[in-house]
Write a structure and sequence with these properties.
The protein is α/β, with parallel strands linked by helices and 213 residues long. It has helices at 11-22, 39-42, 55-62, 83-98, 119-133, 135-149, 188-199, and strands at residues 2-6, 26-31, 46-49, 67-70, 102-106, 154-159, 162-164, 173-176, 185-187, 207-212. It holds the Pfam family NAD_binding_10.
Amino acid sequence: MRLTVFGATGGAGVQVVRQALDAGHAVTAVVRNSGGLPAELRDRADVVTADVMDPGAIEEAVKGRDAVISAIGTREGRRPTTVCAASSASIIAAMRAAGAARFLMVSAAGVAVEPGDGPFTRYVAKPLIIQPLLRHGFADMRTAERHVRDSGLDWTIVRPPRLKDGPGKGEYRKAVDGAVPGRFSIDRADLATALLDLAADASSTGHMISVTA
């Protein structure tokens, strides 16, 4: 596949770029600073330095691609942020202008109570602990998800739980339009594996996919 990855210097984005290159895909990594991408990946990927918030600056980077993946996340902690919403809107505008169709965006399991959530998660963990603690970031992600669902693109929203930096197992569990019960974390390497699998899986189009270890 010909892939474009946004958020390519982040923890999940680096894993997506690495695994995609290792699998023989052609990868365009869109970054603010190319120095944030490991040297061995810079040598193998087409690295584009651009402002993701400017649709015109990224249009060429998404043109002719089989799939576009956004692994952009906020680094604002618990402060108000619009980075996910603004970047998703910009990427969608660029894809429409370029005639690109397949878009996958990483969100988060905590943004909503979902079918498959156990009683503790449904009534305590999400509404009383996780969502109030991370309310600004989740509000940003909900807006981003709305942009994606309304985009008219061939979209898939991927909701992982807590992300870890382990080596990964090369496998994961998933649920369509609901939560995977009983698991609460995933290695970024396994999230990357899931994203690449889903990029090639037409049946995931138009769905929210939960993934976990």
